């Protein structure tokens, strides 16, 4: 039976993507899978940032200070980023759908278990938050590569932008969910000290539903099937080892500088998302005003939602328009965003001491500027990394950005607060947090410089990646047409130094090249 070609599928109005069992994935099916991915991404960030909305209640329940409270996010992110390279490595080699299902189920279970920890076992709560990181890491590492295989190059920016909208929107909703569910639980009769636990019991319900939807409706596209040069939808297999893949990524300057730039984003967002509500509360107390914690959580949640949606959309749209003049528009827009965010965060951190209510305009503009690159960074990595190494690139990039970003910043800011001013008075508590937050503007400037360096190398790395993909796909297409037995799954070695010759199975014998596997 002849293999279906892309041209035949286009004539029938179908998306030119293939599943691992040879079925054509229609455009409608790809879009529905994308909706599921986006919903799970929203749930992922909601689950993560629910903690920030009830941080003061958690500190009171366990009786811990700022340093220990900062460890909650730090432990989560450390585990999250340490597992990312493993899931990236597996995501380039095994069925990604099963990785997603396992990860979603894991984070839902451990979030639920963490809500039942007694007040004398803070270490156990930290353990469960760390285990939640394993589940979330698997999803965030693998899903961008899946989206890249479901949508063609011309559609990827829109697909990744919509997927990225869910991140800040879910984070903002997490603030609101945490404080709202806690208030609702108190009004329903729950003890004040432990009412926050109910906020951690909402997302697991939807997490288990997401596992079912993934199992039923998410396809497993072949790796690289949506590349314009892959006309026959061959599966790209990996014949390289982990060290070879890491060496390839280290040589890719776009990947290196893009990762460095996004590290600054995660540092600042990690600091602000975790400490900003408490920072504002302490500013009110330092000025002799009793703060409304629910109002502050609602304010930050709403601003994060709105700023995230506006920032992601504005970043993607700006890059699309700017690309008419500059081929490297995506890293340039990311750089401009960070250069704007730095002064905004600085102004907010200074003005808050004298007028806490006046920081909102600076926070809004700063968060919009920070979110400009949310959709651009995954797109940059997909453009400049060959298909069979994209999941690993996502995993390694995630590990580095979180190791030096939001795994570090919440703990570091809490530590600075305790070491500089301590917590004897409300003013001391405020000034200590202010010192920590003022590290963010400098980090923004450094991140902007990294994205400018990324823009310098972007065009060369993308052109080289396109040439490697096109040359390998051309050889496979030519050989599969010459062979009387069509080749449906083929291993491509996308080494940065050379293109390997591709063999095929001959109808006259059983001579099978080790690079080609017949399904």
Descriptive overview:
With 519 residues, the chain is an all-alpha fold. Helix content is 70%, strand content 2%. The chain has helices at residues 6-11, 27-53, 55-62, 66-91, 96-114, 122-150, 153-187, 203-217, 242-251, 253-286, 293-322, 329-351, 360-371, 376-384, 390-403, 409-420, 426-437, 439-482, and strands at residues 17-18, 24-25, 235-237, 489-491, 516-517. Strands 3-4-5 form a three-stranded mixed sheet, with no helix packed on it. Strands 1-2 form a two-stranded antiparallel sheet. Helix 2 (27-53) runs antiparallel to helix 6, helix 7 runs antiparallel to helix 11 (293-322) and helix 11 runs antiparallel to helix 12 (329-351).
Mean pLDDT: 81
Radius of gyration from CA coordinates: 24 Å
Class from helix and strand fractions: mainly alpha
Give the overall silhouette: globular
Residue runs with pLDDT of under 50 for 5 or more positions: 1-16, 484-519
How much strand? Answer: under 5%
| Major sheet characteristics | 3 strands, mixed
Helix content: over 70%
Number of helices: 18
Name the features.
519 residues; mainly alpha; 3-stranded mixed beta sheet; 18 helices; 5 strands; disordered C terminus
What is the topology?
Blueprint (H helix, E strand, L loop, with lengths): L5 H6 L5 E2 L5 E2 L1 H27 L1 H8 L3 H26 L4 H19 L7 H29 L2 H35 L15 H15 L17 E3 L4 H10 L1 H34 L6 H30 L6 H23 L8 H12 L4 H9 L5 H14 L5 H12 L5 H12 L1 H44 L6 E3 L24 E2 L2
Parallel strand pairs: 3-4
Antiparallel strand pairs: 1-2, 4-5
Helix pairs in contact: 2-6, 2-7, 2-8, 2-10, 4-6, 4-15, 4-16, 5-6, 5-8, 6-15, 7-11, 7-14, 10-11, 10-14, 10-15, 10-16, 10-17, 10-18, 11-12, 11-13, 12-13, 12-14, 12-18, 16-17
């Amino acid at each position: 039976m002849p293999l279906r070609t892309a041209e035949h599928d286009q004539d029938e109005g179908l998306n030119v993507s293939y599943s691992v069992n040879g079925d054509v994935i229609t455009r409608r099916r790809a879009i529905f899978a994308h909706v599921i991915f986006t919903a799970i991404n929203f749930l992922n960030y909601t689950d993560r940032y629910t903690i920030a909305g009830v941080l003061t209640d958690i500190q009171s329940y366990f009786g811990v200070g700022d340093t220990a409270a900062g460890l909650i996010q730090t432990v989560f992110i450390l585990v999250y980023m340490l597992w990312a390279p493993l899931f990236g490595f597996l995501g380039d080699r095994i069925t990604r759908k099963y990785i997603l299902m396992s990860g979603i189920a894991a984070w839902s279970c451990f979030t639920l278990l963490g809500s039942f920890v007694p007040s004398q076992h803070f270490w156990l709560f930290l353990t469960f938050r760390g285990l939640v990181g394993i589940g979330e890491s698997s999803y965030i590492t693998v899903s961008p590569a899946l989206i890249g295989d479901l949508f063609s190059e011309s559609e990827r920016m829109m697909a990744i932008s919509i997927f990225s909208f869910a991140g800040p929107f879910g984070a903002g909703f997490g603030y609101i969910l945490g404080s709202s569910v806690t208030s609702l639980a108190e009004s329903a009769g729950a003890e004040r000290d432990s009412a926050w636990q109910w906020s951690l019991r909402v997302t697991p319900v939807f997490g288990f539903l997401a596992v079912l939807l993934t199992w039923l409706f998410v396809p497993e596209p072949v790796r690289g099937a949506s590349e314009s040069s892959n006309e026959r939808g061959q599966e790209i297999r990996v014949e390289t080892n982990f060290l070879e893949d890491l060496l390839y990524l280290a040589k890719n300057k776009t990947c290196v500088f893009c990762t460095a730039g996004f590290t600054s984003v995660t540092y600042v967002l990690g600091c602000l998302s975790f400490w900003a509500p408490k920072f504002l509360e302490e500013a009110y107390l330092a000025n002799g005003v009793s703060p409304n914690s629910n109002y502050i959580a609602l304010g930050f949640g709403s601003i994060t939602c709105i700023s995230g949606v506006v920032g992601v959309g504005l970043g993607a749209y700006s890059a699309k328009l700017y690309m008419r003049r500059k081929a490297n528009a995506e890293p340039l827009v990311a750089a401009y965003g960070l250069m704007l965010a730095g002064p905004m965060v600085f102004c907010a951190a200074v003005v808050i001491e004298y007028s806490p209510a006046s920081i909102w305009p600076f926070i809004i503009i700063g968060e919009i500027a920070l979110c400009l690159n949310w959709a651009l960074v995954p797109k940059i990595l997909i453009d400049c990394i060959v298909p069979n190494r994209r999941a690993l690139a996502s995993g390694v990039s995630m590990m580095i950005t979180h190791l030096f970003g939001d795994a570090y910043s919440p703990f570091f800011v809490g530590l600075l607060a305790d070491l500089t001013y301590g917590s004897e008075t409300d003013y001391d508590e405020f000034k200590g947090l202010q010192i920590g937050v003022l590290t963010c503007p400098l980090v923004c400037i450094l991140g902007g410089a990294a994205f400018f360096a990324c823009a310098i190398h972007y065009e060369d790395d993308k052109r080289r990646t396109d040439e490697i993909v096109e040359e390998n796909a051309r050889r496979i297409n030519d050989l599969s047409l010459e062979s009387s037995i069509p080749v449906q799954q083929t291993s491509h070695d996308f080494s940065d130094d050379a293109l390997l010759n591709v063999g095929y199975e001959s109808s006259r014998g059983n001579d099978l090249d080790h690079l080609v596997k017949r399904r």
